[in-house]
Amino acid sequence: MHPLFALPIFSLLIAPVWGFCGTSVNLIFFYMTWATLVLSHSALRVELVGTATVRLLCYALPSLLFFLFDILTPSAAVLLKTQGEYGLPAGNKRGKIRRKDLKVAVWALFNLVLGVAVQGAIEHTLTSRFRKVSLVRVTLKLPLPWSLVLEIFWGLILREILSYIIHRWILHTKNPLARLHAAWYHALRAPYPLTAHYDHPLAYLIGRWLPTILPVALWRLHMVSYLVYLAIVSLEETFAYSGYSPMPTGFFIGGMARNTEAHLHSLGTGNFGPWGILDRVMGTAVDDKFVEEDGE
């Protein structure tokens, strides 16, 4: 990433949380940074570097740190695991670092990069070859606060619906893609850091990447709304798949983490949506007994 381009991206991300400046100063600085970014670079570059930056800061780096903590200090990590030793990558706190664990980490990071690359290829094809509008609105005009909230809200709701539909009726039915998903992701004993993006690349693109990017394209979110939306999704994946019991929001993220564990331990018989809302409505919620029994 070119340093002159990286500075506006990082400034854009941290401007809203600067507490030592007044609100007006923050808003002015935020808009000036955004204007500099939009006027200095192409919409495609803004979108792709913004996507990569959010994924790096909100998912890749924290998940990688959690993963290293698990494999390098298992005796300490086990104290934070909901399922104790069973939730560690090696399966016990005396286990050595295995090639299989490193393979999971490498494939997860590869899939993350693959998703950004596919997004870039689609955007380039749409805007350059077919002269269509981009999936994300990169404009000088910023969305109003209420519009920002609504865009993010509907994006997350549509992601929940798409994730449930694809996960249940594509990745868990009798077809080649479902077999790849079963052979890769469901070969794991328990979720642990980085496993949110671990799967066969094709199954990953259909089951993880598509439900995340499709709401953005259908609603055509503004770039700022998209960055916040992607940050929420990335942080959700980081903590829900960490296997840890302490969570930033115990009820919501903690509940998602337990649903994720139960889905894996039940061999994919339920808990298909990220939040579990549609599973409750559709009667596919898996009882926590799977987690409790495996953690004993």
TrEMBL record:
- What species was this sequence derived from? Aspergillus indologenus CBS 114.80
Q: Which GO terms describe its cellular component?
A: membrane
Q: What is this protein called?
A: Sterol desaturase family
Please give the InterPro entries that the UniProt record associates with this protein. Fatty_acid_hydroxylase, Sterol_Desaturase_Related
Q: Which residues form the Fatty acid hydroxylase domain?
A: 154-284
Give the residue spans that cross the bilayer: 59-80, 101-122
Broad class of where this protein is predominantly found:
membrane
Subcellular localization, as worded in the UniProt entry: Membrane
Gene Ontology BP terms: lipid biosynthetic process
Q: Lineage, please? A: Eukaryota, Fungi, Dikarya, Ascomycota, Pezizomycotina
A GO molecular-function term, please? iron ion binding
Where on the tree of life does the source sit, at the highest rank? Eukaryota
Q: Return the Pfam families for the record.
A: FA_hydroxylase
- Endpoints of the signal sequence: 1-19
Keyword Nucleus present in the record's keywords: the answer is: no
Instruction: Report keywords, A-Z.
Output: Membrane, Signal, Transmembrane, Transmembrane helix
